[in-house]
Amino acid sequence: MTRMFSVRAMSVAAAFAIAAFGLFGCTKVSQSTSTPQGGGAIPGVLRYADIAEPDSLNPLLSTQVVTADVEYLAYTFFFNYDDKQNFVPEVALQVPTQANGGISKDGKTITYHLRHGIKWQDGEPLTAKDVAFTFRAIMNPANNVQVRTGYDQIASVDAPDDYTVVVHMKRVFSPIISYFMCQQGQEPVLPAHLLAKYPNINQIPFNSMPVGSGPFKVTEWQHGDHITLVANPDYWRGPPKLQKIVFRFVASTSTIQVLLQSHEIDAWFRANPDQYPQLVKIPGYKALVSDQNIFSHIDFNYKDPILSDLRVRKAVEYALDRKTMAHDLTYDVYTPATSDIAPYNWAYPHDLPYYDNNPAAARALLDEAGWTVGPNGIRQKNGQKLELQFSYVSGNVLGAKIGSVAQARLHDVGIELMQKVYPATLYFAAAQGGGILNSGKFQLGYFGWVGGIDPDNSSLYDCDQFPPAGQNNLFWCDEKLNAAEQDALGTFDQARRIQDYSIIEHELIEQVPTIFIFHDRRIDVISDSFHGYVPSPASSSFWNSYDWSVQ
To answer: Of 83, 409, 485, 492, most Cβ neighbours within 10 A?
Structure first.
């Protein structure tokens, strides 16, 4: 799994779910034929907006999806993923396999051959030394790195020459190709000549004004307003078609819609599904609905004494009605979820049970747990009311609507639910920075998660992945799940991994450390003047930004 994101105003979930759920890679287009009035495109300049501002532009320090977007613009990975979920070689020339000799017979040595001619945006060449440094930076305990999954299974990384990288594994780690210097591992290659001098990279100028090797270079970050990137003339594919990209931070999705209507921006990526009926009517724009490997969910904080009781967690799930929420809140753009694995993924278990919309079962579980109904209808035990807090990112309209629906349904079974909003930078911040999720300062946390091309979800659920050493912000440890996770990671046998993920997903359903709400599909609203955009279900749809144009 890769990135956290705010399921925004009608949530990112609704935004993705707009078209009927289909095969991956399928895209539905709704387009107005009206002519835009006023404003208009600026040739060569792409303007887009989002409600979240990055907390850092150093990919080692952030888990936000808006940071991942900028990474695709400013940095390069070993591989990208196209709209058919195929690897697209970038820094690495070829995907290593056992068949082509890139992976040793025992699965513990991986050899990469790097592309010649890639330069950092200050003119220095990108070499294997940068790759070895990036690995060391990821594993440096002084750095506030949020995700080390995969990298923590590597014994060493050698650079025998400038264009060869040899990775020596501690043990077989089946998803390593999807992780190492790739989007699923969250880390592109970083410049050793600029960063190796620092004992840690937590507070350095680079984090606001990075030097990458991607198609665009960050030239300005006006906090609270926008980031500007300009075309990199030395990009290895050649100069990108766009001259400039301006990424604006806008406090509400309603305002973003106004900016589209006034033609002050050219795109809204991951638009809110609840606004879909209005978005498809904006003159001069088209709304693309496509599958995306994202799930929306409500996490429980297992450290909380109320929520450590399985009966309470199950009661919350039984009180909800995900099918109705998907229909009423996302216009069926999103679909009800039972798993973090996308339904089109090879590891998705199709026999998962579905528990919700059963208030009677919820009441029975709460009775069993000793929570009795008080005079005002709210349950209590030992003088304590059954009150819970539902948190999400400020400006997230879908989160607010889900919170309101959940509030009513939980009240019906005797649970008082209060809503609490946080800015994205605080909500998703590292544990070292007091982040709400990663520091366990929540009870019920609603957000979305971007999955990877490999179904590995160990960083979310393994027992040794509690923040700051991982992303298990549930603070939940389940030995049965943990054993299946370790087995799945230790074999290249896909049939065996399918069995392991069936165990993992069934355990998640039965133990309810989290409630999977939606499988999200994305809505991208783009101007008729914006060309070359190709949504990808496997990763950020910024994978081919070098080919975008505005005319």
So the answer is: 485
Total tally of structural domains belonging to the chain: 1
pLDDT for residue 304: 97
The model's confidence at residue 545, banded by pLDDT at 50, 70 and 90, is: very high
506 falls within a domain: yes
Question: 170 burial class (0-12, 13-18, 19+ CB within 10 angstroms)?
Answer: exposed
- Taking the C-alpha atoms of residue 92 and residue 77, their distance in angstroms, rounded to an integer, is 8
What are the distances in angstroms from CA 517 to CA 8, 245, 279, 499, 509?
A: 14, 34, 24, 24, 12
pLDDT tens-place string over residues 454-475? 999 998 999 999 998 889 999 9
Query: CA-CA distance, 147 to 450, in Å (whole number)?
Result: 14
Q: What is the DSSP string of 486-507?
A: HHHHT---HHHHHHHHHHHHHH
pLDDT digits (tens, 9 = 90+) for 202-256: 999 999 999 999 999 999 999 999 999 999 999 999 999 999 999 999 988 899 9
Give residue 113's identity as a one-letter amino acid code.
H
From residue 242, alpha-carbon distances to 2, 226, 505, 518 in Å are 28, 18, 43, 35
In a domain, 420, yes or no: yes
What CATH number does the domain containing 7 carry?
3.10.105.10
Boundaries of domain holding 273: 1-51+250-525+540-551
444 neighbors 298 (Cβ within 8 angstroms): yes
Tell me what pLDDT residue 539 has: 60
Q: Let me know: does 340 contact 509? Beta carbons within 8 Å.
A: no
Q: Is the residue at 432 inside a domain?
A: yes
Residue 401's nearest CA partner among 469, 326, 459 is 326
Place of tokens 């040793």: 104
Contact predicate 117/123, CB 8 Å:
no
Q: Quick one: pLDDT at residue 14?
A: 28
| Residue recorded with tokens 């609704």 | 14
Backbone dihedral region for residue 311 (phi beyond 0: left; psi -120 to 50: alpha; all else: beta): alpha
Quick one: how many helices (H) and strands (E) in the chain?
A: 15, 23
Local structure of 159: helix, strand or coil? strand
**Given this model, what pLDDT does residue 292 score?**
82
> Beta strand pairing status for 372-373 and 79-81?
unpaired
CA 109 to the chain's CA centroid:
29
Predicted pLDDT of residue 456:
93
DSSP 361-404: HHHHHHHHTT-EE-TTS-EEETTEE-EEEEEEETT-HHHHHHHH
DSSP character for 101? T
What the block records as the tokens of 378 is 């709210």
pLDDT digits (tens, 9 = 90+) for 474-526: 999 999 999 999 999 999 899 999 999 999 999 999 999 999 999 988 899 99
- CB distance 275 to 253 below 8 Å: yes
Greater confidence, 356 or 520?
356
Closest CA to 23 of 330, 291, 263: 291
| pLDDT the model gives residue 451 | 80
